[in-house]
Amino acid sequence: MTKPIALCAAAVMLAALGVARADSPSGASGIDPIAVRQAGYALQGGDFAYIRSVVEAKGDVKPLEVPAKAISKWGRVIPTLFPKGSETGENTKALPKIWSDPDGFQKIAVALVQASDKLATDAKAGATDLVAADTKELGKQCGACHKAYRAK
Ligand code: HEC
User: Fold this and answer.
1) Which of 115, 116, 118, 131 is nearest to 61 (CA)?
2) Would you say 64 and 119 are in contact if contact means Cβ atoms under 8 Å apart?
3) Cα separation of 115 and 120, whole Å?
4) How many angstroms separate the alpha carbon of residue 142 from the centre of ligand 1?
5) Whether 66 contacts 124, CB under 8 Å
6) What is the sign, positive or negative, of the torsion defined by CA atoms of 114, 138, 102, 29?
7) Would you say the C-alpha torsion 104, 87, 45, 21 has a positive or negative sign?
8) Tens digit of each residue's pLDDT (9 = 90 or more) over 85-134
9) How many other β-carbons are positioned within 10 Å of the β-carbon of residue 148?
10) Ligand 1 center to 128 CA (angstroms)
11) Residue to substitute in 80, 118, 137, 150 for testing ligand 1 pocket (most ligand atoms within 8 angstroms of CB)
12) Which residues contact 8 (CB under 8 A, 6 or more apart)?
């Protein structure tokens, strides 16, 4: 009985993807960069909230290596998710400045990667105080980018 259900779910998913592709700015690839980046940012928001909650509770920082590494990987792909043609649609909050000042945008993404790499290393070492400082530094990059490149 599981097989037909799985096939049915796959068909529903394909239909959903078809709908997404119809108003997607990305063309042939079928990947909607706006939906992907919003999903990625939402997941990153969860990772960062988790990191902060452990730091505030003065909990064991070792497990924070995992979400910190995820944020680092994400930071590396952020600049690729704003191709031309994805300036509008799907209630995107991306500001035009991302396309007029790509270097400035990229610079903050690199700073995000560096801050999360450092956090991962310090978390692995169990360095509670360093992780607290790293978390602040990481949070600064979120704020800096949102202030300059994201609509309220
Ligand atoms: C290099 C720039 C940049 C950095 C760094 C950045 N953001 Fe964002 N963020 C954006 C932009 C631009 C959007 C809007 C994307 C859109 O709507 O297309 C966004 C959207 C979001 C969203 C909303 C996602 C949704 O559901 O639509 C959350 C949550 C978020 N960011 C959290 C964070 C957190 C937490 C950090 C730091 C750990 C961070 N961001 C770092 C640029 C950045």
Assistant:
1) 131
2) yes
3) 9
4) 7
5) no
6) positive
7) negative
8) 999 998 999 999 999 999 999 999 999 999 999 999 999 999 999 999 99
9) 14
10) 26
11) 150
12) none
